[in-house]
């Protein structure tokens, strides 16, 4: 499968700048535009932060082709029924172009602890798993009864359903081919591979992507509709190596000072995409 390219933009910005960058990304041939989803981001730095879901609603109406969504939304700090309404609304506003990236939501001390919420990763992971089950059930259009440790739903039916069926695709953030996150990802629709060294994003080796693809195959029989997205600090030097390893998306990340130039230059396939959509 040919590697597709998405901008992976921080929500640490004014909302109008994020909308304009998404419009530019579509014009320049990018395949996707995914926003970070933070409430605070840091307890040590003051910065403007936009609400990703409000911004994505504006982007949905300002674009027509590009895939849009989050990478990643911390489901554990959300009421999953409220998030289900937001996800489905974005999906329908965009004509079925939404992607929901999910994860724990680092840094935990800022995203949870600053507001008096528990910061234990195991507990947050349990809430994430329960929240995803509620999200899935509420997108079915059927009555949902759910009794979990953290969330309870008693005979709730959400309409309308998303354009994408059976649900908006769920991509799960992972750091490697072992552990709970990759097994979680295999239960859903994709994995977002993110490696860091301190605050810096580190490109994973294609061999690591191959190991993650193999881990997913061990957990599920059908991988034809499974996406493996790799977060990179710049365009890959050898896209074919990532494709051969099983990657389907490259998420090109950075801060808003640098991203406009990257977006304007376009991804490697930009000329082909522009010709196809002209």
Q: Could you describe the 3D structure shown?
A:
The protein has 278 residues and is α/β, with parallel strands linked by helices. It has a single domain (4-276), classed as Alpha-Beta Barrel (TIM Barrel), CATH 3.20.20.30. Helices cover 37% and strands 21% of the residues. It contains ten helices and twelve strands. The strands form three sheets. Strands 1-2-3-4-7-8-11-12 form an eight-stranded parallel β-barrel, surrounded by four helices. Helix 2 links the parallel strand 2 (32-35) and strand 3 (67-74). The protein is globular, with a radius of gyration of 18 Å.
Protein topology:
Layout: E1 4-9, H1 15-27, E2 32-35, H2 52-62, E3 67-74, H3 80-93, E4 98-103, H4 108-111, H5 121-138, E5 144-147, E6 152-156, E7 170-174, H6 180-186, E8 190-193, E9 196-197, E10 200-201, H7 206-219, E11 227-232, H8 239-245, E12 249-253, H9 259-265, H10 270-276
Parallel strand pairs: 1-2, 1-12, 2-3, 3-4, 4-7, 7-8, 8-11, 11-12
Antiparallel strand pairs: 5-6, 9-10
Helix pairs in contact: 1-2, 2-3, 3-5, 6-7, 7-8
Task: Briefly characterize the structure.
With 278 residues, the protein is α/β, with parallel strands linked by helices. Helix content is 37%, strand content 21%. An 8-stranded parallel β-barrel has the order 1-2-3-4-7-8-11-12, surrounded by 4 helices. A two-stranded antiparallel ribbon has the order 5-6. Strands 9-10 form a two-stranded antiparallel sheet.
């Amino acid at each position: 499968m040919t590697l597709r390219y998405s901008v992976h933009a921080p929500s640490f910005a004014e909302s109008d700048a994020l909308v304009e960058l998404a419009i530019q990304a579509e014009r320049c041939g990018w395949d996707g535009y995914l926003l970070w989803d933070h409430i605070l981001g840091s307890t040590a730095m003051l910065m403007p932060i936009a609400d990703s879901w409000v911004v994505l609603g504006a982007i949905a109406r300002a674009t027509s082709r590009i895939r849009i969504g989050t990478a990643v939304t911390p489901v554990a700090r959300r009421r999953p029924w409220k998030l289900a309404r937001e996800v489905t609304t974005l999906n329908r506003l965009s004509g079925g172009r939404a992607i929901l990236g999910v994860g724990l939501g680092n840094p935990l001390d800022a995203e949870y602890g600053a507001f008096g919420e528990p910061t234990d990763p195991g507990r947050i992971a349990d809430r994430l798993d329960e929240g995803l089950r509620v999200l899935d059930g509420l997108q079915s259009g059927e009555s949902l009864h759910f009794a979990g440790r953290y969330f309870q739903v008693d005979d709730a039916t959400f309409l309308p359903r998303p354009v994408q069926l059976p649900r908006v695709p769920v991509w799960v953030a992972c750091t490697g081919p072992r552990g709970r996150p990759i097994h979680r990802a295999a239960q859903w629709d994709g994995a977002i591979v993110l490696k860091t060294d301190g605050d810096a994003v580190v490109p994973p080796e294609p061999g690591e992507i191959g190991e993650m693809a193999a881990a997913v195959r061990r957990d599920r029989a059908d991988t034809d509709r499974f996406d493996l997205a790799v977060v990179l600090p710049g365009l890959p030097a050898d896209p074919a190596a990532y494709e051969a390893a099983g990657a389907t998306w490259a998420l090109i990340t950075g801060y808003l000072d640098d991203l406009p130039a990257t977006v304007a230059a376009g991804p490697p396939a930009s000329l082909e995409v522009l010709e196809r959509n002209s």
